[in-house]
């Protein structure tokens, strides 16, 4: 079976097997990682290794802190403005779809205003705004964007450059929930990167935040301390009991990326091949289509529709029979969506492409 779920998504089989081996008795210590005190020497070693491996994989510079927190990526929709609006200013956003929109809504809910510096809504979210269209407010405290919109399958083909008119820098904040670790990244371009874990990192609920150290002093005084990047950083992400087992599993995924895959350049090449194959199959068919501008097509989430939507049900039922799971599009958009995150092997894409071609020949 191959799992094309958008999230919680497939985990690498090798990671699940390793977790099973270690589940009851972690490396001969006589207990499960789930049963360890987060303050124990053993667990702290697990947590520190996970952080070090992630830092190495992404090349995170030493003046950035890595936090392992909880509450899903959605909690960061509130945590980011709380952490960055303490010295005044307005939150700025690029709106490219459902997730970006939710982040805007939360900032407005908390602080009454949020400036939309650019939006792809005029283009039905089929292409991202061009860099020259980004118009920051004069008091922009930061610019938030979603490099990969998971539901729309819309991805940025550039990293926004963000400067005020006077040349000063506006920190760039990226919700990388559905694209982190899919390839190499220049972390130094960003003020904050955050990602819910359940696509390319590990189990749902866990969130990784990478924050530049100089931004730790911009938090509002009235914010909940559990959401405070400064306090999380000071406590090594252990203000309270962290999601210990999820953090451990994330560590296994980082190890897998390093040793089984060979790092993010290698992962990038695999992801490129996978998405090229799937989009080619879609573009070369009369039955399937994807409307996103070619340069902005997501490598992780590939939505597509059938020329005759009356065939949707059959397509999904037959795919399921063939062991190709969770291809139904998001409930808000319909159609199909194949999420092909890191853990989905190239063979899964090959199997999907073969199935699609066969289905088209029989029903198209
Ligand atoms: N941001 C993006 C880009 C997502 O894809 C998702 C979830 O799928 C979220 C945020 C919300 O994540 P969570 O459910 O962990 O809050």
From TrEMBL:
Alphabetical GO biological process terms: L-serine biosynthetic process; pyridoxine biosynthetic process
Aminotransferase class V domain mapped to chain residues: 2-352
Recorded superkingdom: Bacteria
Annotated cofactor note: Binds 1 pyridoxal phosphate per subunit.
Cofactor: pyridoxal 5'-phosphate
E.C. number: 2.6.1.52
GO MF annotations, alphabetized: O-phospho-L-serine:2-oxoglutarate aminotransferase activity; pyridoxal phosphate binding
GO cellular component, one term: cytoplasm
Annotated pathway: Amino-acid biosynthesis; L-serine biosynthesis; L-serine from 3-phospho-D-glycerate: step 2/3; Cofactor biosynthesis; pyridoxine 5'-phosphate biosynthesis; pyridoxine 5'-phosphate from D-erythrose 4-phosphate: step 3/5
UniProt keyword terms in alphabetical order: Amino-acid biosynthesis, Aminotransferase, Cytoplasm, Pyridoxal phosphate, Pyridoxine biosynthesis, Serine biosynthesis, Transferase
Modified residues (N6-(pyridoxal phosphate)lysine): 199
InterPro entries associated with the record: Aminotrans_V_dom (IPR000192), Pser_aminoTfrase (IPR022278), PyrdxlP-dep_Trfase (IPR015424), PyrdxlP-dep_Trfase_major (IPR015421), PyrdxlP-dep_Trfase_small (IPR015422)
Catalytic activity: O-phospho-L-serine + 2-oxoglutarate = 3-phosphooxypyruvate + L-glutamate; 4-(phosphooxy)-L-threonine + 2-oxoglutarate = (R)-3-hydroxy-2-oxo-4-phosphooxybutanoate + L-glutamate
Binding site for pyridoxal 5'-phosphate: 73-74, 99, 150, 175, 198, 240-241
Intracellular or extracellular location(s): Cytoplasm
Subunit structure: Homodimer.
Biological function: Catalyzes the reversible conversion of 3-phosphohydroxypyruvate to phosphoserine and of 3-hydroxy-2-oxo-4-phosphonooxybutanoate to phosphohydroxythreonine.
Designated name of the protein: Phosphoserine aminotransferase
Organism for this UniProt entry: Halomonas cupida
Classification of source organism: Bacteria, Pseudomonadati, Pseudomonadota, Gammaproteobacteria, Oceanospirillales
Protein encoded by which gene: serC
